[in-house]
Amino acid sequence: QVQLVESGGGLVQAGGSLKLSCAASGSIFSINAMGWYRQAPGKQRELVARITSGGSTNYADSVKGRSTISRDNAKNTVYLQMNSLKPEDTAVYYCNADIRGTLFILREYWGQGTQVTVSS
Description:
Layout (H helix, E strand, L loop, with lengths): L1 E6 L2 E4 L4 E9 L1 E12 L6 E6 L5 E3 L7 E6 L4 E6 L8 E11 L4 E5 L3 E6 L1
């Protein structure tokens, strides 16, 4: 059993910052890529940022230069530091990870989501 648990969402004023965290726990052998997606009301879920096990990153154009994704492999945790937040960043943010469990089967996992609301 593998779980992803997010934290760090909340309400912030435009121009402010938030740091999201997502910890993976359970029967984990290894974790490949980890990432953050978001879904605003009435819109499709979209990639925000992703980081490989080796530390390579990619970002959505909409957050590039304002956000930084990082991970602590020892803690099985991925972070998303978001700065200069805009009202259009308001969404539910979901953690995502490709995890190989102790049976060596690689699967994609999702967290339950954390709300980020940016007020103007």
